[in-house]
Design goal:
Blueprint (H helix, E strand, L loop, with lengths): L1 H6 L24 H9 L6 H6 L12 E3 L6 E5 L16 E3 L6 E2 L13 E3 L4 E5 L12 E3 L4 E3 L14 E3 L6 E2 L13 E3 L4 E4 L13 E3 L4 E2 L16 E3 L6 E3 L12 E3 L4 E5 L12 E3 L4 E3 L14 E4 L21 E4 L3 E2 L13 E3 L4 E4 L13 E3 L4 E2 L16 E3 L6 E2 L13 E3 L4 E5 L12 E3 L4 E3 L6 H4 L8 E3 L22 E3 L6 E2 L13 E3 L4 E4 L13 E3 L4 E4 L13 E3 L4 E4 L13 E3 L4 E2 L15 E3 L21 E3 L6 E2 L13 E3 L4 E5 L12 E3 L4 E3 L9
Parallel strand pairs: 2-3, 3-5, 4-6, 5-7, 6-8, 7-9, 9-11, 10-12, 11-13, 12-14, 13-15, 15-17, 16-18, 17-19, 18-20, 19-21, 21-22, 22-24, 23-25, 24-26, 25-27, 26-28, 28-30, 29-31, 30-32, 31-33, 32-34, 34-35, 35-37, 36-38, 37-39, 38-40, 39-41, 40-42, 41-43, 42-44, 43-45, 45-46, 46-48, 47-49, ...
Antiparallel strand pairs: 1-2
Length: 719
Amino acid sequence: MEIKLYCILLYAFLITITFPMLSSEAKQPLSLATDQTSLLSLKHTSLLLATNWTNSTSVCTWIGVTCSFRHHRVAALNLSATIPPQLGHLSFLVSLDLSNNHFHGDLPQELSLLRRLKFISFRLNNFTGDIPPMLGQLSKLEYLSLRNNSFIGSIPKSLSNLTNLQYLSLSSNSLSGEIPKEFGRLQSLQTLSIQSNHLYGAIPSAIFNISTLVSMAFTYNELSGSLPTDMCRNLPFLTKIYLSDNQLSGAIPTNLSQCLRLEMLSLAYNSFSGEIPSEIGYLASLRELYVGGNNLNGILPHEIGHLQSLVTFGAERNEIAGSIDFNIFMNMYDNYSFEISSFAGLIPTEFGQLYHLQTLVLELNNLSGSIPHELFNISTLRFLSLLGNTLSGLLPTHLCHASPFLEQLYLAINSITGAIPNSISNCSQLTILTLGENKFSGYIPTHLGNLRHLQRLQLHGNNLIQAPSSSFITSLTNCRSLTLLSIDDNPLNGVIPASVGNLSSSLRTFSAQNCKFSGSIPVEIGNQSNMMGLDLSGNELSGNIPLSISHLHELQGLDLFGNMLGGSIPHAICDLFSLNTLGMSHNQFSGPIPKCLGNVSSLRYLYLDSNILNSSIPSSLWGLKDLINLDLSSNSLNGFLPQEISNLGAAIHINLSMNQLSKSIPSTIGKLQNLVDLSLANNRLEGSIPVSMGSMISLENLDLSYNNLFRSTSTPRLL
């Protein structure tokens, strides 16, 4: 709303101007009238400004404008508009906040005239171009935020001239190049944030000599090299280090223990090696520690147990060995989050004593045994992931009886057996439940329908069945936020109920391959107009594809492979204009390939092989210029290959074998430069093999067998 954009002033940053006016800053004396003239150049950009900014009222009463008390000049602006060069005439401006608006374009050079500025915030706009080096002329600047824009190019070295700067954020842009080593001159800087850009190279050692630094943040870049072994020698006030998601390597410096005020240390998802230094255990103020996703080895140092203030610990996806020694964590009763991996053995039952724990991630370990029921006695638990272990046994009988706030439960890829207990309905706050790839058996409980907040349910890869008297799918219609339902590879038997059409309108993916479903595809499937992925492959479905399929306008993937579906391919398929993948192989479809398929320009993968199709290949298919895989093999297709086959320039795999195609191979086939696999075997093709095929530089597999072809004297011998 315009009222929100234009009227909210950040009074905390309005600074009373106490400096005498410098008349040398312009060719004519500057005054409040000059300020008014400059601001009037902005009024055309907004209807609200056009009606509020008028000559009949004082400029100091205008929306978004604040004047200083002493000189009665414009001192602060909070606007939404394009920035005109006249803004440079506001010579008494000390605070300029244009954040969270819709500004665009380059920053005008005239900003360099605003020599009194102490505060600039242009965050959350769409400014483009380079960051102007002239910003380095604003010597009084203390706060500069350009984050969440679209700035490109390198960071200007001139910003190192801003020796009064305390806060600098250039995060979430498209900046590249290296961090200027000249930034070491910013000896008043407290916050340096340049996250989510494309910076590369090493972090300049001079950065670690800015003794005033409280927070440094360089996550989500491409920074490399190692950290200085003495990185904390001159950083007595540092409380936060964010270096995750880069390409940093080498050992984690033991000198980190000298950053005595450190509360946050994030080094995850780099290439650090060696052991976690035991010296980290002496950072008494440390609350969050992230070292996951590296190449760390050795064992978890016992000194970690000294960190009594630690609330979040992540060491997943490393090569740390040994079993989980709970004695390391026994003093951390205020811990909110654990995330560790590469451990073996049993899950300690003592984890149940961490009464403030909210997140426990023990995924991708070699943990064995059963899941301790004590984990579900943690009343504060919200996130539990044990996936990717070798856990066995039954699930605890009384799930979530004492942990009613559990929101996400990941138990997939284990060897858990037995039935899914009905007590799962006690986990009433669950949004994500993954039980796939285990050894669960018995009925899928209809109590799952009581999980009203459920968004993702994955039960695939088990030995589950559905009760004969009631359908669990029908019970899931109560889950109105469901976006993903995966029940693949379970011997469910029976039919797909019509109630599938009553599932959440938010459903994006329904995957039910290899479930032994029989009967027809229910017409009601067409009610799922927001569905993006539908996989019913590997079942025993029969009958025709319902015409209601045309209502699935968002569908990107449709896989019906390996059923007994028959009849003609309905033209309704051609209404799926977002379709990327169409798999109808190994069915009993007959008749012609619909010509209208050539209108589905989004198609990348088309599989119609192993059916009873008996027309010629529609000429419209050769117009699918972005098609990557085309398989029409094992049908009764006739006719010939046209010159237009060369339009399939993006194709990597083409299989037209086991048909009745005749005449010669067109010479234009040599233009398919990306083709890796080509099979035209078992047809009625005749004539010479085109010389042009010798120029198909990507071709690895070629099958022309069982035709009436011959190699002419000019055909390359490699064919």
